[in-house]
Design goal:
This protein is mainly β. Helices cover 5% and strands 64% of the residues. Strands 1, 2, 3, 12, 13 and 14 form a six-stranded antiparallel sheet that branches. The protein has a six-stranded antiparallel sheet with strand order 4-5-6-7-8-11.
């Protein structure tokens, strides 16, 4: 994750109001970072029993090499499913639909798998038959989450040439998320407040 600060100058402005249409700061979440998380999760497996006409037994599936692909204005999911059923072993490619959103209440970038089906098939009298369609989204129900920049805050005091001081407070407020080629961009506005610092009162003690 890379933080890219693009703070607009406010030479003539004492205070800046927050605006959804203003981009003051951006956070970039790279596709490779997302897929490092999926690599850490590893394979997903399942075993179920089935009955189909005169057939009865069980099957096992393993989903591996999961990846999320980030493109301009879209994201999608891919993986490889290996299926073992009734003495048959086969592989099938999975392509799934993702949903991207920025959850402002939790300050999270969320990627939710919505739809990623793959078939469980076997043969009967030499003909292929579909036993069931597995929906991988039923097994990956929680979204993949990454911290956002919404609660970033900073404050400092600076001394002016006339001897006075200014208190400067800056924090992110409104954020929007965008899917771009190989990365997700979260663009935020900054709330900037400048005020006169309170003067320190010196206590003079006389002996």
């Amino acid at each position: 994750i890379a933080l890219i600060f693009s703070i607009v100058g406010h030479a003539q402005t004492k205070s800046k109001r927050c605006s959804d249409s203003t981009v003051d700061m951006e956070l970039i979440l790279h596709e490779s970072t997302i897929n490092r998380v999926l690599k850490g999760i590893g394979d997903i497996q399942g075993t179920q029993t089935y009955t189909y006409l005169i057939l009865k037994g069980s099957y096992t599936w393993t989903v591996s090499t999961m990846a999320i692909h980030v493109c301009k204005d879209s994201t999608y999911f891919t993986a490889l499913a290996k299926v073992h059923i009734a003495g048959l072993n086969y592989e099938t490619f999975i392509r799934g639909r993702m949903a991207l959103q920025f959850n402002a209440s939790r300050n999270k970038i969320q990627l939710q798998l919505q739809h990623a089906p793959f078939p469980i098939s076997t043969e009967l009298f030499g003909k292929p038959i579909l036993i069931k369609t597995i929906e991988l989204a039923d097994y990956i129900k929680d979204p993949f989450e990454f911290d956002g920049p919404l609660y970033l805050k900073t404050a400092w005091q600076t001394e002016m040439p006339d001897g006075s001081s200014k208190d400067i407070k800056m924090s992110t407020c409104a954020c929007n998320v965008f899917s771009e080629q190989h990365h997700i961009r979260v663009a935020c506005a900054l709330s900037i407040q400048v005020s006169n610092a309170l003067k320190k009162v010196k206590n003079n003690k006389f002996s």
